[in-house]
Write a structure and sequence with these properties.
Number of strands: 7
Radius of gyration: 16 Å
Distance between the termini: 36 Å
CATH architecture: 3-Layer(aba) Sandwich
Number of helices: 3
CATH superfamily: Glutaredoxin
Strand order of the largest sheet: 4-3-5-6-7
CATH class: Alpha Beta
Bound molecules: FE2/S2 (inorganic) cluster
Helix content: 25-40%
Structural class: alpha+beta
């Protein structure tokens, strides 16, 4: 693990570090900018889910060798496809969000709105529905503030950080 990745006592997923280093080496660098760090996606309301999160605290993968983050992404896609009200929110995946100890983790974001990183989710349909329900409210909110009365039960206690959008800070 890179020493510079020790953030407030939390560390990125070691497995992801290995994957990322390998990808960096194979892609090379251009003028010091790592070409593999960012990948362009649609700039709209989205649930950005970590694909590399562990399945449980003691097991990175389930019995079929699939990581918890991947299972949560599968559940998010399945739930999103089941209800047209979720269509305005995209499901996107990313590698490590640096909240590995709080797996499974997601980032809920939308242009011009405060975004939130949430974690401690079980990778299943109930979690996916709660995340998407919140994301729909978030996409429709002013500035990213969702009234507490609209919070799905399944997201309460799962918030880790809020992140002001580019060009803004919170008051
Ligand atoms: S593996 Fe680090 S946040 Fe998911």
């Amino acid at each position: 693990m890179r020493a510079g990745w020790l953030l407030h006592g939390r560390t990125p997923n070691d497995d992801d570090t290995i994957c990322r280093d390998a990808a960096d080496r194979s892609a090379g660098t251009t003028r010091g900018i790592r070409m593999t760090l960012l990948r362009k996606v649609a700039d709209g309301p989205a649930v950005v889910a970590c694909s590399t999160c562990c399945f449980t605290a003691g097991a990175p993968e389930d019995a079929e060798g699939v990581r918890g983050g991947r299972r949560l992404i599968e559940a998010l896609h399945a739930v999103r496809a089941s209800d047209s009200s979720y269509q305005r929110v995209a499901v996107q995946e990313t590698r490590c969000l640096f909240s590995c100890t709080e797996h499974c983790s997601v980032h809920i974001r939308a242009p011009g709105k405060v975004g939130y990183v949430l974690g401690r989710f079980t990778p299943d349909a109930d979690s996916a529905r709660a995340i998407l329900d919140y994301a729909v409210h978030h996409a429709a909110s002013e500035g990213g503030r969702v009234p507490f009365s609209d919070w799905p039960k399944g997201v309460k206690g799962h918030f880790i950080v809020r992140v002001p959008p580019p060009g803004y800070v919170t008051e």
